[in-house]
Amino acid sequence: MKKYLIIFTSILAFYFIIQFVSGWILTVTYKPDLPETWNSSAYLSNEVVFGGSPVVPVVATVILAVLAYLITRMVKRLKGE
């Protein structure tokens, strides 16, 4: 049980680190275009999207979980357990 808790915690930490780093990079590289933003603000009230699917984080989490499982299986085989 302890192994699975360590794997889950490491995947969760990796996920938050990736989210933090990508958010930081997007924030640092953002350059607003104020005139174009002002011109396109008329469309904001006409185009409302409800919902949405967080596909990328879910897929990334599943891929990381599968990788963690496979790495654990390989380590067990190498140790001879």
What topology does this entry show?
Blueprint: H1 2-29, H2 34-40, H3 55-79
Give your account of this protein's structure.
By secondary structure, this protein is mainly α. The chain has a domain at 53-81. The chain contains three helices and no strands. The protein starts with a helix and ends with a helix. The mean pLDDT is 83.
Concise structural overview:
By secondary structure, the chain is mainly alpha-helical.
Order of helices and strands: HHH
Q: What is the molecular shape? A: elongated
Alpha-carbon distance between the two ends = 16 Å
In which range does the helix fraction lie?
A: over 70%
Characterize the largest beta sheet: strand count, sense, and whether it forms a barrel: none
The helix tally amounts to: 3
Structural class per helix/strand content?
Answer: mainly alpha
Number of strands: 0
The fraction of residues in strands falls at under 5%
Average of per-residue pLDDT values: 83
**What is the C-alpha radius of gyration, as a whole number of Å?**
21 Å
- Detail the poorly predicted runs: none
Key traits:
single chain; 81 residues; mainly alpha; 74% helix
